[in-house]
Design goal:
5 helices, single chain, mainly alpha
């Protein structure tokens, strides 16, 4: 949701953090749990704390 609020496409976010669009897609769909490094990069790019992007189960 934050990505959409910032008017970023999956491709744009992927480029910002150095991953593929497919990686962003699988993270958003809950099919892939990102590494700590990717999670931190996503949080920084989306200007949110990691805890707000990812829910630990």
């Amino acid at each position: 949701m934050q990505r959409a609020k910032m008017n970023l496409t999956q491709e744009q976010l992927a480029e910002l953090i150095g991953v593929t669009r497919k990686t962003i897609n699988t993270i958003e769909n809950g099919k892939f749990i990102p590494s700590t490094i990717i999670a931190i990069k996503m949080a920084r790019a989306l200007q949110l704390p990691v805890e707000e992007l990812f829910i630990l189960n």
